[in-house]
Amino acid sequence: MHVIVAACATILLALWPARMGAQCDQCEGDFNGDGNVTIDEIIVSVNNALNNCPAPGPRFVDNGNGTITDTKSGLQWEKKGDDGGIHDQDNAYTWSTGSPFNPDGTAFTLFLATLNRTPCFAGHCDWRLPSVTELQSLIDYAQFAPATDPVFYTGCTAGCTIATCSCTTLDYYWSVTSSAELSNNVWNVDFNSGYVSLYDKTLPFYVRAVRGGA
């Protein structure tokens, strides 16, 4: 079946009008950048041609300014380093100081306050904690330790900065989404294996800021 699909894709591309071929010269078959072109990527190439070649490329793009853009959702994510600064992957923060469990923990009063203080991180002053749905969208269940795209875990060594590496702690990260049943709990996402769990808002966990979207 794969041979038939590949053959059909080859014929379709070979018969494509010259003007369409010129329009799609920039379309690369290796969409995930792994050096190989799979059957699925061939099918995507054909579909791109049929739809006037929408911009191809990897889903996650390192912007070179300490942020990563998800081209699927349009969200812009903070990168993490390991240099002891505000972006250090090992920094843990609380969501709340306690009753009535308002968002007044260090995740808000220290971490986000620092990122949103003028001139603001990467030139933007609207950084926030992601919803649990947004946070879980970074999980790749085909990966483990960390369970996310390699762009979030590249060259991570002691002392590296967000300009030179990208780190992810193999543990739970806070979302902004409180439990509908238990007001003192928030949904967290584990970037070691991809689990989603509830934890008390006063406990220290890890964070990754996001902007855009909701």
Structural description of this entry:
The chain has 214 residues and is of the alpha+beta class. The chain folds into 2 domains: 2-50, no CATH class; 59-214, no CATH class. Helix content is 21%, strand content 14%. It has 5 helices and 7 strands. It has a 4-stranded antiparallel β-sheet, with no helix packed on it. A 3-stranded antiparallel β-sheet has the order 4-5-6. A hairpin with a 6-residue loop joins strand 4 and strand 5 (185-190). Helix 1 runs parallel beside helix 3.
List keywords for this structure.
disordered N terminus, 14% strand, 2 domains, single chain, alpha+beta, three-stranded antiparallel sheet, 214 residues, globular, four-stranded antiparallel sheet
Task: Give a concise summary.
By secondary structure, the protein is an alpha+beta fold. Helices cover 21% and strands 14% of the residues. Mean pLDDT is 86; it is low at 1-27.
Strand order of the largest sheet: 1-2-3-7
What's the helical proportion of residues? Answer: 10-25%
Number of helices: 5
Estimate the global geometry from the Cα principal axes: globular
SS-based structural class? alpha+beta
Alpha-carbon distance between the termini? 42 Å
- The number of distinct β-strands equals 7
Q: Any idea what the radius of gyration is?
A: 21 Å
- Mean pLDDT across all residues, rounded? 86
Spans of 5+ residues with little confidence (pLDDT < 50)? Answer: 1-27
Q: How much beta, percentage-wise?
A: 5-15%
Instruction: Return the string of H and E elements.
Output: HHHEEEHHEEEE
Total domains: 2
Main beta-sheet strand count, sense and barrel state:
4 strands, antiparallel
